[in-house]
User: Fold this.
Amino acid sequence: MVSLRQLEYLVTVVDQGSFTRAAEILHVTQPALSHQVRALERSVGSPLLERLPRAVHLTAAGRAMLPHARAALADAAGAVSAVRQAIGLTGGELRLATVYSVSLGVLPAALKAWSRLHPGVDVRLFEHRHADELAEAMASGQADLAIGPRPGTWAGPVRTIGVEEFVVAVPSDDPAAAGQATEVDLGALRDRRWVHYAPDNGLADILDRACAEAGFQPRIAVRTEQTASAPILAAAGLGPALIPANIVPKGYEGRTLRLRPPITRVLFAYARTELDAVSGAFLALLGENVAGKLLRPQDAHPAP
Assistant:
């Protein structure tokens, strides 16, 4: 008989890539962890993990089982949360999934308000590099609610949150920001070397498409894995960076220029099923806390 504990052990080993790190996180001994994973493999009749000297990899059977293991754990957590929700927003856990830029710019104000209003409901935040990765995680049951770009196809409920505008970050003494300049045509920066993003960061696609629409391919000065690093690197003079306006840090040392024409991205909230009480309450609170962070859809222009 397969147990939820065994599924939790399998998922943790895969996520950590190591029995040693997984045992530390789960607060069990490594032999006990290995024993339970082997018991799971005996139950399903196939090895799930390939144990190498320095790494652990899923077998074909493991790859087939992993999304079901995640979904089972998510359903179990949801069942516990549903019982707690039935007696009010006094306990339980809200599981949110998003992309990096949204966790930097849009969510903090809402999360701060949530912790003040519902201190008994914990929040678990899952952050992803790309909208496709976010949608895959949601489909596998990772979280109750996703906040990010709309997935390509989605059978569950989808609601519009608002529209984020992109700006170009440059050093304070950049020629494009000379005088009182507050706007720039992207094509005017065609000869620059850019602060770009790692290929698996969704913002890399947006920059490449925007530059293609402006008639050029961006030359790369540096690629960053971390969205938060882009405006800092731009302010340091490595090159302009295309960033959501809402992630500009307070006291930013560089300058930000709006684009002509604007580049924007619509953000959505989506779930697998109709929102439960906790997810619905957070979504309502998010709507109250995006003023100044996001535009209304009718005020925006779609990204290229």
